[in-house]
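User: Structure please.
Assistant: Input sequence and predicted structure:
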Amino acid sequence: MIKEEVKIVEVGPRDGLQNEKVILPIETKIELIDLLVDAGFKTIEPTSFVRPEYIPQMADSKTLFSSILKHEDIVFPALVPNKKGFLNSLDAGAKWIAIFTATSNTFNKKNTNATIDESLKRFDEFVPDAIKEGQTVRGYISTVFGCPYEGETSIDEMLRLCEKLISFGVNEISLGDTIGVANPNQVQVIIQRLKEHFDLSMMAMHFHDTEGMALANILASYQEGIRIFDSSVAGLGGCPYAKGASGNVASDDVINMFHKMNIKTGIDQDKLHKASRFILKALGKEGSSKFFQANEGRKS
């Protein structure tokens, strides 16, 4: 008997592929998204409206968007770094966008060439317009559990940023373990602080699996009341701050864990396996997902 339900936000087509060295043709990306929709994902992060010279993997964002709008009932939040990205997303027909900042000034400057407060000023330049135009806005906060440059980061700064993003009108905030260093005790402490100030129903967790701790951290988050989790098909993406390390936690493993716990995700695991097999073949690589590898062995 299914006793509970979680929402899985599939970030592979954007956060996964932008960290892969292979630049895929747009037809492959569209087919991947079609397969993920068929598997049951209702929220899929497809691309980002960024400068192609910085992230060439996302250079086809406008064309890609026009090709996936056929899925009218699917939420497609596109990442936008600034007002120009927002205007491009609007021109492409995006109904959902995502904005991002960090709890570390050093990380934020290296990632977006802006301090934390400068990034907030950028949001103020276009987020009110986005909401006025009918777009729904998701927010990301990186380095919540640790920074590759500054080490431990401030929970109070995370809480300040959550409050700021909510004041801008975001409907959901994803808290990122950007370098995959979180542990379940730390997760509990952070979520308990969150509960004191915010409604957990609008909070998501975004764990990387750099040290193999992502599932443990997701379980700890679930036990503390979080019901939204970001993950990536087949574990797509690396960790740019840890050479050779895996990046995003694999959707395959997250969904397998929840299903074994009798918790509903809305995802068909056989169809997800098909999507994972497809994209891994296109990239010419083996996936990091333990469940995918085990399931592939059973199917061969």
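The longest strand covers residues 96-102.
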